[in-house]
Write a structure and sequence with these properties.
Number of domains: 2
Helix content: 25-40%
Strand content: 25-35%
CATH architecture of the largest domain: 3-Layer(aba) Sandwich
Structural class: alpha/beta
CATH topology of the largest domain: Rossmann fold
Shape: globular
Amino acid sequence: MYRELNLPYGAGEAPLRLPAQNLAGVFAPQAVPACEDPRVEIQRALFNPFNSPPLSELVKAGERVVILVDDHTRSTPAALILPPVLETLTRGGTRLEDVTILVTHGTHRLSSEAEVRQKVGDFVYDNFRVEQHNSEDEASLVYLGLTRYGTPVWVNRLVVEAQRCIGIGHIGPSPYAGYSGGAKLIVPGVAGLDTINMTHELVPLGFRQAGRVDVPCRLSLEAAAALVKLDFLIDVVLSQDERLARAFAGSPQSVFQAGLALARQVYEVACPTELDAAITSAYPYEIDLYQALRAIEFADAHVRQGGSILLVAACPEGWGDAQFQALMADRARKPEDYLRDVARRNGKVTFSVLGYAVARIRSEKKLYILSEGIPRAELSAAGFHPLDTLQQGAELLAGEYGPQYRVAVFPKGATTVPVAP
């Protein structure tokens, strides 16, 4: 008996046929219904904030307001959330010219005009000032001081000079910080590159601790973000098909804690350990390999040493960054070589710490990949075994581990956090 599966891959799907006896399970985020009317849900959250006055009372007429939204690589439906937020502000006397929408890129590339318009919506794009944060533009940054971790904090001037700062984000799995949401809109979102580098150099200390928000990187970035006054936060949790399920608004820390509780119920899934192999799709983070590799990081802890991980990721934008590709180009590099890059700031630290994680996984397990966006020679040079089809990969696994091998499938591996049963 066989199990027929289809994994998200680019604009379509990659078919997979596995013997049922070999399938340890298909693991995906728990089904949570999308709300019936996103606008009603957003307004409910705005009118019933956690540990905060309503937004209409918090922001006074004449105050300059900056609203932070995450970028094109994230699924937050900012175009749905912004209109009710802006209506609330304008009803309270806020003028259009007093509002700036700031896209929080961290170390990601800047968005195209079309990507920004899609993120914030046509009305907002056409009627409000919309800016993009560039972590490497030192002239746009303001120094705020040192954290208890010794991290110097530089943040976008627009945030510092605004009288009110409002954040819009979503809470989902993050390989570096446990979960996104909360303080991550500030750091790395609108922080300077040096601040991002220093908070993220602690990422290796959280290796194989998916879903934990007490890892050193998260604690460090929260300490840095605490130097910025984020007055009001709207975080959302999404359904399996990336629609809005629940909105949370109010005090940033209270919002994050309330949203995190629901996010854990959605994204953390009991899964067997010591598997021979995992087949994982990077959807919905397959825009480039830098984003897609989180699917390998999440699956890794449940695959035994000597096992294999097969990544499905279209990667229409290739590696995502030439610096990242250069760091990954030599498959002979050891994990400590990437730590040396971190210490010497050889490229962006966010790239080096991901290289470290992949090098550790690659030293213990075989990595296969199905990707149409990156040449096979480049993938091979970085230590991946390219595939022509997903089925080819399944057959290679059977030949590698024999008729009794055990494999888990993660159709949405970039947002599935496997936990021990």
